[in-house]
Write a structure and sequence with these properties.
Layout: H1 13-19, H2 25-34, E1 40-44, H3 50-55, E2 61-66, H4 69-74, E3 81-85, E4 98-104, H5 112-122, E5 123-134, H6 141-154, H7 163-167, E6 178-179, E7 187-192, H8 194-201, H9 205-214, H10 220-230, E8 237-249
Length: 251
């Protein structure tokens, strides 16, 4: 991450690792089916390693980098995954050495011109880049209404400007690669209790900004409303996040 790297996630990186959802295995099976070579994948801005762990099932080596040392420290160790602290726009990888580059929920933070130049340098001739993002999850109408109020009203002035790129599914971002069309639909899914949901909300960067600016946790006033809509807080409910994906080839 760069653009003069602003670290939105190091504080609470352990919570990030604990509460953030995982990506569907089918997505990585699909991506691996599109790359003819499965030697090295680079998961850029890996965070706590959610995507890197899945890539390790399909590629001999996964280099998982992040500009945040705290995120790397909180990442889950896995055979075949090499975690490194590094900015997105400058690596020490050999030219033409990477088969697949992935960026999960982080492209909007990058200096895109420099990052894309680095991607084109390190990708092998038939290499591929896949980037994806997700916005608000959905559970049920009553719960969704409460979350929408938190997101759009309470936290409206506390989201960074880059968040609008996420809301638009990266459609506004330049993507200077030969793009793949007709990508299948993928979504993250989870079964969460209410305490897990509340923990996840605490990982939102705007929630942290609100706390810092006001001294008040914006999730607390919402808790009672969520309890009423949820029922037994230990009951698990299905949570889903549709993914917006862009895939491109080096040549």
């Amino acid at each position: 991450m760069s653009k003069d790297f602003q670290d939105h996630f190091s504080e609470g990186s352990t919570d990030y690792s604990q509460f953030r959802p995982g990506y569907p295995a089918a997505l990585f099976e699909y991506l691996s089916s599109l790359t003819p070579v499965h030697d090295v994948a680079w998961d850029c801005a890996t965070g706590s390693g959610q995507a890197a762990l899945q890539l390790a099932n399909h590629y001999r080596q996964v280099i998982a980098s992040d500009a945040s040392a705290h995120q790397i420290e909180a990442a889950t160790a896995c055979k075949g995954v090499d975690y490194r602290v590094a900015p997105a726009e400058q690596t020490d990888f050999s030219s033409g050495s990477i088969d697949l580059v992935t960026v999960a929920q982080a492209l909007h933070w990058f200096d895109l011109e420099r990052f894309y130049s680095e991607v084109k340098r390190v990708l092998q001739g038939r290499g591929m880049i896949a980037v994806w993002t997700y916005n608000l999850f959905r559970i049920s109408p009553a719960i969704d209404e409460a979350i929408d109020q938190l997101y759009h009203i309470t936290l409206n002035n506390y989201w960074p400007e880059e968040r609008r790129l996420v809301e638009n599914g990266y459609a506004d971002l330049p993507f200077p690669f030969k793009q793949k069309q007709a990508i299948p639909a993928f979504a993250m899914s989870a079964e969460w209790t209410l305490p897990h949901l509340l923990g996840y909300l605490g990982t939102w960067s705007a929630v942290k900004r609100y706390r810092d600016a006001t001294g008040v946790d914006p999730v607390t006033p919402l808790t009672r409303q969520l309890e009423q809509a949820w029922g037994d807080p230990k009951q698990k409910r299905a949570v889903s996040w549709p993914l917006s994906i862009r895939i491109g080839f080096n040549h």
